[in-house]
Amino acid sequence: MESNLDYAVGRLERILLDLSSVVVGFSGGIDSTYLAVMANKVLGNAATKLVTADSPSLPRDELQDCQRLAQVLGLDLTVVRTAEFENRAYLKNDALRCFYCKSELMDALGPIARERGSVVVLGVNYSDRGDYRPGQRAASEKDARFPLLEAEMTKAMIRDHAKLLGIPNHDKAQAACLSSRVPYGTPITLSVLSRVERAERYLKSLGMAQVRVRDYDTFARIEVNPQDLLQCASNGALIDFELKALGYRYVTLDLGGFASGNLNSALSSDHKLDVIQPGSYIARGDA
To answer: 123: closest CA among 195, 166, 78, 174?
Structure first.
């Protein structure tokens, strides 16, 4: 009997074949990497173009990872500069920040796709359903497709198949843009993002792969995987010194551990919640 993974991979291959030619929004995470590898496998190199959006919200280490991965995997990558930091609505950092960001991404990827006669595809997976992701609504409104979601491929499936295919970042920790570290309602600034990036780079140098430094002006709230809490606490004096040198007055450790989209919990029911569904978006709550 065909396994769920085999069935999902088959569906993904058929979806990609129907698309014929794709431009992959490439972040260097496992979802977009797996999507790029599968598109290249099904459609070939000439019909698979990777584009990485570079802006101040992308850590330099992540940009370098994108470039290294593309080279190792033999994928065609272009890096484009996006302009979300010229958008006052984005810098305001309200609940639709990700909408403005993804809209800017599509404005950058769209012309490349049209010139090639391609479709923009993004690495949204089936496990992302039910999360608050207004950015995906922005992408959908500009005709992006989400083949992994459409094929009902979960994060676990993607990691498992990526490992079988020998994709080197199959177990890479989740990543997100640096702006996601700033609470909604607090303006995004280059100095804040630079401070967060340096703080997280230091923590990773201690061996903690999954790190978030949530920036509350004078406070830094550190999130790491539960198994790394003890290590983080045992290095407390060093971490306190290093982060205070970056300008924080208080350095705290979240005992609940890392949680993706943690700051979304502050959103009230007054906000419009964009919830991912296969092929559609369901708005819950009041606009």
So the answer is: 174
